[in-house]
Amino acid sequence: MTKVIICDDHVMFRKGMILYLNRDKEVEVVGEASNGEELLNMLPNVDADMIFLDIEMPVKNGMAALRDIKKIKPNIKVLMVTMYPEELYGLAARKLGADGYITKSTEPRMILKAVRKIMAGQEYFDRDILARVRAKAPGRPVVKLSKRESEVLSLLAAGKSNKEVADELNISDKTVSTYKLRLLKKLKAKSLVDLVNFAKYYVQGEDMPEGKVLL
Q1: C-alpha angle 195/170/95, rounded to 5°?
Q2: Which residues pair with 78 in a beta bridge?
Q3: Which residues of 171-197 are buried (b: 16+ CB within 10 A; e: fewer)?
Q4: How far apart are CA 57 and CA 8, in angstroms?
Q5: Please, which pLDDT band fits residue 67 given cuts at 50, 70 and 90?
Q6: What are phi and psi for residue 126, nearest 5 degrees?
């Protein structure tokens, strides 16, 4: 039996997923949360195998919560279930510890397929995403990003302001500005728009503890 927590700020989506998943004899929903902070508070007290995690949520979004989830329960599986296309956030989510990524437009039966594949020890990402993760791109310079730089870039790409990023990551506005300037310099970007566009190029090598961006 796979025990699942659903973290999404849309009540109708959560309830719909609970009804659907609980119909399967191999899956049981054992908890629900409306944002990342609520999820992190309940996580130590709930016995779960997997988390369904949305990206865009109030208080603490999914990308910001993902790193903390892996600190609290490193062995728990995380399946990103979101409205955002995988080509934009798939690589960033994988770098931060996600085990799979599907969009809310996915057919319900594919959700169960993802659950079973992940619980069997495999990843569930688009083939193109995994190919980009493992492949080398000759002729393209590589820039390494720290985990914190990756988090800041992901939140900026989600449309967060400096203050919102600071609140999400528990750092000061000034520190966010410093990271932004560092990212602009590292990625040779001229504006925040350029940084948002770069977010989709996250790649994590199998033996690379840090992120890297292919320019």
Answers
A1: 50
A2: 51
A3: beeebbeebbeebeebbebeeeeebbe
A4: 7
A5: confident
A6: -60, 145
| Dist. CA 162–CA 152, nearest whole Å | 9
d(C-alpha 5, C-alpha 33), whole Å: 8
Whole-angstrom Cα distance, residue 133 to residue 99? 13
pLDDT (tens digit per residue) in 168-202: 899 999 999 999 888 888 877 767 766 765 654 44
Predicted pLDDT of residue 214: 39
Q: Decide: pTM greater than 0.70.
A: no
Contact 102, 118 (CB under 8 A): no
Amino acid at 3: K
| β-bridge pairing 202-203 and 142-145 | unpaired
Across 96-109, average pLDDT: 89
Burial of 142-154, coded b for 16+ CB within 10 Å and e otherwise, reads ebebeeebbbbbb
Side chain identity at residue 2, one-letter code: T
Rg (the chain; Cα; Å): 17
Give residue 121's region: left, alpha or beta (phi > 0; psi -120 to 50).
left
Rounded Cα–Cα distance for residues 14 and 28 (Å): 13
pLDDT tens-digit series, residues 134-157? 554 444 445 677 888 888 887 887
